[in-house]
Every structure is written in structure tokens, then in C-alpha cells.
Specification:
This protein is of the alpha/beta class and 451 residues long. 45% of the residues lie in helices and 14% in strands. Strand 3, helix 3 and strand 4 form a beta-alpha-beta unit. The radius of gyration is 29 Å and the shape is elongated.
């Protein structure tokens, strides 16, 4: 239900006659739409179908039903503010048990005017929280499935899996080389899950010290447990001792880990690794229990070198980010130069190269001379870990179909040699795309004869 900008929407859960005067005052102000019920079950039904700025509870007798209802509210309507009305001692105890800054209390003996002021304040907070959530939603759009760009079989399979598993509670392990899109995948999972309006806790196990990570996970005074998505980046770099403690906390669904800073019943765990944790676990370099917990839903992000058919469309995507108005273009010759490069830092490296090229190009057109690679490449390609899963079954459409069918490899070599190994001209001659030509070159392991 869409809220009015002027009218506050309140749900009053009470069986008390003492609150009638307060309700009458609120109605008289013509600023509130009030729904009243005495049933906690009816209240939960209303919360599933309508949006409320504020919930008012009167506390009398047993409080277990109130606690149960409020916990449901926190799940289904996290922006809704809550005000408890009753005896001071009972209200304070409830606020402590529920441990949420959105829950406050007032004594029924307090003047109606003061309670109304509290209600107005909490409704303002509720609206502000919702506006912040709308802003976060805009940020989340940057982590949509459409931002996982490509036409390769590997990318299509990755997107299909992400769509299926994002809105689940299952822990996810993402394995892939540096710069291949693991963090983007993790953010996509978060923003398409039930935790999207909660925190995304990124913990870089490579850059954080063991002491710092221990403090993130454990403390003696942790009355406010954290929730949301925990993203353990480069978990293969986490020290073994901390892995063991973390495994115990994540797999113990009871109150034995009181010093653990996260609410294990309200977190989603996503981890990434640049190394095979299966191999590390077999070599006793990674905790076995933690590996089995994380590996319930494994994903793989592939190096750019194994899906070069994605390069051109990925260039267009990055250029739209660099120049939102679409002013920067890239020439076929520049794309050819990128296709011939040995990619080691994958998408990260490609984005950096295009960003620099866009800054120095003339007439808003990136040419081959604007493409400048780093002089040193220190990071090895990780094909031995991730394998080669490309499936090259494209059909050529060329003038001499019979010759190509007999000896496709020789036809490609001849066309490349005739065109001085210019990919654009060769692809045009063969009647195919540059990326398809590149895959064929890799399939047949073709190399230019410079003798």
C-alpha cells in the first residue's frame, strides 16, 4: 500500500480502554490513519498486507506475544517504528530484550500531549528511514543482474545461477581469479536477497590483520548483534586459527557463542577465493568445517582470457560508466589491440585501461594508440585452478563453405596472413565477428609466423 505524504499510518494493538483518549486526540488532529486491533494474530496479518509508520502496543499481562509480534515486524517491515505503552518497569525490560533503536516506550500515565509528540517524532524517523532505503535501492540497481555483462556461455550460466540462488539463505562460495567479478557477484546476491535493506559487511581477509578480523567477529560487550550479509573477500587468506573459530560460530545454532558479534540467525554468508579451497582443504591449509559450510552453493567466475567473446560488449559497458552520456566510443582497431592482449587482471585491468584511454583520446574516440598496457604483469593466469570451459561450436558464414568445412584452420590462417593479421579485416573477409574469430584462433592455437 502506498503511503500518503501527509497522513501517518498507525497500527494500534491494544485491549486497554486507557488508550481511547490518546486515539481520540490523534484522530482529531486529522494527521493520522489509525487501525486498531486487540488480536496479535490479526496484527500480523495486517502487517503482511499494509505498510505502517508506527506500531503502538499497550503492555499488560504476558509479554511473550508482544515479543513474537515485534520480531515478525522486524522481518517484514524493518522501517516501522514501535512505541510501547505501559508500566515503566515492563516497558524497559521489553526494550532491553528486543534490543532495537526503533523501539521506545512511554508510561500510560504520561500526558497525552507528550505521547503525541513522541508519536510525531517516531513517524518522522520512519519516513527518513524509508527515504534512506529508497536511496540504497538506487545504489542496489548498480548491482543488478544486467551489470554482469557478457554473451559467453560462462556468463549466461553465472547469471542464471545468481538469479536462482540470490533470494535464499544458502551460504555461497565464489571462486575465480583476481578481477573476474567476484565482488560484483557478491553484491548482486546481497541486493537481490531478503537482506537487501540490511548491511553489506565487506571483510577483506587479505588486507585486514588477524587482530582486526578477530575484533570484527568477536567482542565481550556485543549487546547489539549485527545482521545482514557478510562478504568474506579472499577468505583463502584468512589465518587458520580464525577459520576454526569462525567455523564454530557459523555452525553452532545456539547461544554458545555469546561473544560472536553477528546474529547467526539473521545473516547470509558469502565468501570468495582466488584459490581452490577444495585443494587447500585437502592439503590442510583451510579449515574443513568452514569449507563444508561455505561450499553448499559454489559459483565460478571465469578469467577474461577464457571468454574473449565478452570483451567488446564489456568495453561498451565500461564506457557507459565512464561517460554516462555515451560520448566516448572505441574504434575496431582499439578492440583488436585489446583482443590480442594477455589478460591477467581481467575486468579490473580492462576498466583501468579504458578509463585512461578515455582521458587521453581525441574527438571522443578511443583508437589503438590510446590503449596502453602496463609494462609489467606480475599476476599469473590461473587456468590450472579454474580450467577452460569454453564451448566453441560457432558456424562460419563464408563464401567458400566447402573449403572451410574441409579445412577450417587453413582457411583462417590464409585470411589472417592475407590481411596482415588484422582481426577486423580478417573477420569481415570471413563474414564473422571479431570475437568469434578470436575464439577460433584460440581453439586452433593459431600463431603468427614472424620468421
Amino acid at each position: 500500500m502506498k503511503r500518503s505524504n501527509e497522513i501517518g499510518n498507525l497500527l494500534v494493538i491494544t485491549g486497554s480502554l486507557e488508550i481511547n483518549e490518546l486515539i481520540a486526540t490523534l484522530v482529531s488532529k486529522a494527521e493520522y490513519k489509525i487501525t486498531q486491533t486487540e488480536s496479535y494474530l490479526k496484527a500480523q496479518t495486517l502487517l503482511n498486507s499494509l505498510k505502517f509508520d508506527l506500531l503502538l502496543f499497550t503492555i499488560s499481562g504476558e509479554t511473550s506475544k508482544i515479543i513474537e509480534t515485534i520480531k515478525e515486524v522486524r522481518k517484514s517491515s524493518p522501517h516501522t517504528e514501535i512505541l510501547l505503552l505501559g508500566e515503566s518497569s515492563k516497558s524497559v525490560d521489553l526494550v532491553k530484550k528486543l534490543n532495537s533503536p526503533q523501539i521506545d516506550f512511554a508510561e500510560l500515565t504520561t500526558s497525552t500531549e507528550i505521547i503525541v509528540q513522541q508519536i510525531q517524532k517516531k513517524i518522522r524517523f520512519s519516513r527518513m528511514t524509508e527515504e534512506l532505503f529508497a536511496y540504497k535501492t538506487q545504489i542496489a540497481m548498480r548491482s543488478s543482474f544486467d551489470n554482469i555483462v557478457g554473451i559467453s556461455e560462462e556468463i549466461m550460466q553465472l547469471k542464471e545461477k545468481l538469479m536462482k540462488i540470490s533470494d535464499t539463505e544458502i551460504p555461497i562460495l565464489i571462486t575465480g581469479p583476481s578481477g573476474s567479478g567476484k565482488t560484483l557477484s557478491a553484491k548482486t546476491i546481497h541486493y537481490h536477497s531478503s537482506y537487501r535493506n540490511r548491511a553489506f559487511h565487506l571483510i577483506n581477509c587479505e588486507t585486514e590483520s588477524e587482530t582486526s578480523m578477530t575484533e570484527i567477529f568477536y567482542s565481550e560487550n556485543n549487546d547489539e548483534k549485527r545482521d545482514g550479509t557478510i562478504y568474506l573477500k579472499q577468505i583463502n587468506k584468512m589465518p587458520l586459527a580464525l577459520q576454526e573459530k569462525l567455523a564454530a560460530a557459523l555452525t553452532s545454532y545456539n547461544e554458545s557463542n555469546l561473544d560472536f558479534n553477528f546474529d547467526i540467525n539473521n545473516i547470509r554468508v558469502v565468501a570468495s577465493s582466488t584459490q581452490s579451497l577444495t585443494k587447500m582443504t585437502a592439503e590442510k591449509k583451510f579449515n574443513k568445517e568452514l569449507f563444508h559450510f561455505l561450499n553448499q552453493m559454489p559459483l565460478v567466475t571465469y578469467p577474461l582470457s577464457e571468454r574473449m567473446e565478452d570483451l567488446e560488449i564489456t568495453c561498451q559497458y565500461f564506457l557507459r560508466l565512464i561517460s554516462p552520456l555515451g560520448e566516448i566510443m572505441i574504434s575496431p582497431e582499439a578492440v583488436d589491440k585489446l583482443l590480442s592482449h594477455k589478460w591477467t587482471n581481467n575486468l579490473k585491468e580492462l576498466k583501468e585501461i579504458l578509463t585512461k584511454a578515455a582521458a587521453i583520446c581525441r574527438n571522443k574516440l578511443i583508437d589503438s594508440s590510446d590503449i596502453r598496457f602496463a609494462r609489467t604483469e606480475t599476476e599469473p593466469v590461473t587456468e590450472a585452478v579454474f580450467g577452460n570451459s569454453t564451448n566453441m561450436t560457432d558456424e562460419f558464414a563464408v563464401s567458400s563453405k566447402d573449403s572451410l568445412a574441409d579445412n577450417q584452420k587453413n582457411v583462417i590462417i590464409k585470411v589472417l596472413d592475407d590481411n596482415n593479421w588484422n582481426y577486423t579485416q580478417s573477420a569481415q573477409k570471413l563474414g564473422i565477428g571479431r570475437t568469434t574469430l578470436w575464439r577460433k584462433i584460440r581453439k586452433y592455437n593459431l600463431k603468427r609466423d614472424i620468421s
